[in-house]
Amino acid sequence: MKAKAILASLLMLVAVGLSAQEKAPVKKYGFKSAIAKFATEVMGQAVESTIYIDEYGAKECQKAKVEVPGMGTMESGVISKEGKTWNVNYTMKQVQEVEINPGDQPNFLDLNEETRKKFKIEEVGQEKVLDYDCTVYTLVTTSGEISANAKLWVYKGLPMKTETEAMGMKVTNVVTEFKEDAMVLPQVFDVPKF
Questions:
Q1: Strand, coil or helix: what is 151?
Q2: Rounded to the nearest 5°, which phi and psi values hold at 63?
Q3: Residue among 88, 23, 110 at smallest CA distance from 58
């Protein structure tokens, strides 16, 4: 049971890291819209997720599926728009609005010295992910009482690959498909009413 709680915490850390929203209309990405599919591995568990982005990150929805031993397939999501964020459990038909502090996650399009110091961000190189030129960063982030060391490959503000270590466990998240300036249907960002 403790392993499931840790797994859920790490998945949330990754999801919130990708989906945290600014309260003010700040450009989060260097493209207007995109659809990206990711493969994540946490404690030997494979998670498939898709992120939908519109209005330079003002609207964002990440949906994920994971096989949980003894529980079957779990589908969840994080929807962010209008300065608000909701965690959605599609399997259990639950929605919860959550408070996200914009200062808890860096905006890679606007890295100032204060943000670099707060997260101990260092630029460590340039590499390609799916033929996209990415800037590689290392940083330290905290969610609640969980502190994590991360390495990120960032393209126009979007982490295309992350390697995160927290509580002795490693989470790898890598983009498998990416379509920039994609047509994203507005209903993707609708918060379900169960």
A1: strand
A2: -115, 140
A3: 23
